[in-house]
């Protein structure tokens, strides 16, 4: 499906919802549908985790981990071919894959978690499909910004957001050797982004949500997805049984990692960042994406 085809489908769904529901209900329906559409790669990847766990046999010539890696690469090729993602979004996913794999190698060496199976496509004991788990987050962020025509306003100084993201990423490594500063980092995210609103268009009219709240809600969904990974024994935390839930403390890790993820997206594209407070007006169907303001 091309961008033009996806836009036409979106308009038809919007027309159908508006004809049968009041304005706010129709906007909510479109919000849910667009969120699912933006998360398509992540949904497919979670489905692959579950399905492969159910059907895979230990004596098959191809390991489950290698099959997941091949699936993820093939899915990205198909997404690009169908224009469900553009090259800027592919760059985002590549960055996520790189930074995620580096952290995976380090964390595995520290014994933070383990991969019970093996495969050919791995580095330092880390299967390469694991980088695509972070890529799912990058794919969602890049696609949701485009699909909802998001604007982030007022956006903090760009250098400050990069510095915060770098500090968060570094703390995932350094807390093994020096005191963990995650509580200071939690506070920094709130202070820096307290006034930032995410303006988004489920339909024609804009809605908004505080950026820290959006990060928290997204962290909850990622925590649920992580439980899918452990329940399917794709990876396991130290001391965790198959049917044990991932600790709620991981919500904080995902919350912080989402800021790293978001800033990583802005390294590739800053079109949605608006330095000063602004309330977007109704968006014409043919409206272009906002111009770069930073």
In helices, the fraction of residues equals 55-70%
| Strand ordering within the main sheet | 4-5-6
In percent, how much strand structure appears in the residues? Answer: 5-15%
Count the DSSP helices: 10
How many individual domains?
1
Instruction: Quote the average pLDDT.
Output: 84
Describe the largest sheet.
3 strands, antiparallel
* N-end to C-end Cα span: 32 Å
β-strand number: 7
Oligomer: single chain
SS content category: mainly alpha
**CA-based gyration radius:** 20 Å
- Globally, the shape reads globular
* H and E order: HHHHHEEEHEHHEEHEH
Write the layout of secondary structure elements.
Blueprint: H1 3-20, H2 23-38, H3 40-55, H4 64-81, H5 87-109, E1 113-114, E2 122-123, E3 126-127, H6 130-147, E4 151-153, H7 158-174, H8 182-193, E5 197-200, E6 207-210, H9 211-231, E7 236-237, H10 249-268
Antiparallel strand pairs: 1-7, 2-3, 4-5, 5-6
Helix pairs in contact: 1-2, 2-6, 3-4, 3-6, 5-6, 5-10, 6-10, 7-8, 7-10, 9-10
Explain what the structure shows.
By secondary structure, the protein is mainly alpha-helical. It has one domain (3-268). It is 61% helix and 6% strand. The protein has ten helices and seven strands. It has helices spanning 3-20, 23-38, 40-55, 64-81, 87-109, 130-147, 158-174, 182-193, 211-231, 249-268, and strands spanning 113-114, 122-123, 126-127, 151-153, 197-200, 207-210, 236-237. The strands form three sheets. A three-stranded antiparallel β-sheet has the order 4-5-6. A hairpin with a 2-residue loop joins strand 2 and strand 3. Helix 1 packs antiparallel against helix 2 (23-38) and helix 3 (40-55) runs antiparallel to helix 6. The protein is globular, with a radius of gyration of 20 Å. It starts with a helix and ends in a 26-residue tail after the last helix.
């Amino acid at each position: 499906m091309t961008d033009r085809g996806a836009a036409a489908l979106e308009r038809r769904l919007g027309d159908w919802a508006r004809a049968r529901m009041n304005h706010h209900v129709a906007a909510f329906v479109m919000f849910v549908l667009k969120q699912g559409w933006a998360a398509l790669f992540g949904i497919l990847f979670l489905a692959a985790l579950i399905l492969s766990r159910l059907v895979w046999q230990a004596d098959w010539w191809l390991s489950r981990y290698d099959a997941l890696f091949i699936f993820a690469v093939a899915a990205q090729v198909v997404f690009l071919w169908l224009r469900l993602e553009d090259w800027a979004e592919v760059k985002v996913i590549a960055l996520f894959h790189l930074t995620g794999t580096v952290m995976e190698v380090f964390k595995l060496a520290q014994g933070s978690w383990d991969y019970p199976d093996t495969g050919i496509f791995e580095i330092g004991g880390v299967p390469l499909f694991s980088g695509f788990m972070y890529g799912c987050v990058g794919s969602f962020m890049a696609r949701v910004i485009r699909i909802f025509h998001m604007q982030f306003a007022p956006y903090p100084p760009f250098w400050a957001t990069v510095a915060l993201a770098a500090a968060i990423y570094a703390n995932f490594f350094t807390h093994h050797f020096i005191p963990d500063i995650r509580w200071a980092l939690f506070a920094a995210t709130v202070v820096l982004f307290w006034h930032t609103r995410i303006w988004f268009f489920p339909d024609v009219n804009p809605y908004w949500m505080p950026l820290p709240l959006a990060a928290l809600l997204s962290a909850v969904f990622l925590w649920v997805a992580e439980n899918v990974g452990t329940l399917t024994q794709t990876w396991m935390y130290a001391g965790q049984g198959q049917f044990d839930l991932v600790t709620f403390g991981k919500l904080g890790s995902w919350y912080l990692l989402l800021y790293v993820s978001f800033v990583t997206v802005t390294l590739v594209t800053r079109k949605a960042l608006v330095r000063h407070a602004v309330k977007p007006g109704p968006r014409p169907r043919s409206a272009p994406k906002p111009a770069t303001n930073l």
